[in-house]
User: Fold this.
Amino acid sequence: MNLLIKNGHVIDPANRIDEKLDILVSGGKIASVSKPGSIPGNGAQLIDASGKLVVPGLIDMHVHLREPGFEYKETIATGTSAAKAGGFTSVCCMPNTNPVNDNRSVTEFILSQARYAAARVFPIGAITKGSKGEELAEMGELRSAGCCAVSDDGKPVMNAAIMRCALEYSKIFDMLVISHCEDSALAAKGVMNEGIVSTELGLRGISRVAEDVMTARDIALAELTGGRLHIAHVSTAGSVGMLRDAKARGVKVTAETCPHYFSLTDEAVRGYNTMAKMNPPLRIADDVDAIKQGLRDGTLDVIATDHAPHAADEKAGEFDYAPFGIVGLETALGLTLKLVEEDVLPLTEAIRKLTANPGGILKIDKGSLSAGSDADITIIDPGLEWIVNSSEFKSKSRNTPFNGWKLKGRAVQTIVGGIMEEFSE
Assistant:
């Protein structure tokens, strides 16, 4: 079926497009992007996008789909349904499954399960076998099996020699190395940010330095090796500053942050709110300001969710023992658009950090509306106000600190390979 999307405000940062245009989709591909009224319908299904934003399908380069092994938290089917509801047409799933995605068979299982998923799935393999940090996984095998990057996300690679080897091998296989920057000795058994709030609540804190020292180490290793390094879920002002300096020196490093790190501080933990427990933890206002500045000046390239679903009974436990992580696929767009409303980012740059930048960093040929590319398209109503209701999530899990928040801007149609799904307003 052909689709003709008419009268939409098309924002395609990869092609420097920011104007009212029509888009023709044919055979699951972008056929043409032209001035309004210049494309004949010829029997195509019409979509009137008047008053809407039409952008490349959003890309989330950091999600946890939990399958295989933790299907009670999330599955590839439910996770990609959540992605599509949030406007994401492509997601990259982290390897901390059971078994860990450190070999061809697990990667192929994930891709097999994803064949009929609601969104496209790009597996990320483990840096080390079992993500134990002791021995490199077979990066060439993971690459040939279909992994777009490697990471031990959830666990830092504490051995600097192994991380150096991973970055050196990344050049051979043209693979991105995604680092969870945390010194586990400094983090110890911390459960939230170390500061006034942790002291008042009597909870063990995780110092910002635990992130900063590993960011410094991995930047140094990337500078030494010339490998492609990506820093995941940046949460501190110190990391932002080091990344800014490294980029100025020409180091091949990119970085992401997540909506919770520019929307919340550790004050959200008060009341022992486990929905605000994540790793790295929520920081203080100075860090939030630095994250926003890093997004504004391009130090932080990508907004990713770190979508980390957990069962309700797990999060309902005592704060010390509740798992880290929140779901984010269905709230990320609305929270990102708040940055536009607050004049932190121009609209085009906000969309770039959700489309062209992650696509380019991962080299997955997604994130644009170029003629001939897959018709992965997100249509957004920027004026639609809505209340976050976790009971309505497509995700299997409900662990969000944003329940009840009023957001403005939401995906109303998500198209993957020319197949459309519309969500109620």
About this structure: The longest strand covers residues 377-387. The radius of gyration is 21 Å. The chain has two domains: 3-54+373-422, 58-362. The CA atoms of residues 379 and 389 lie 21 Å apart.
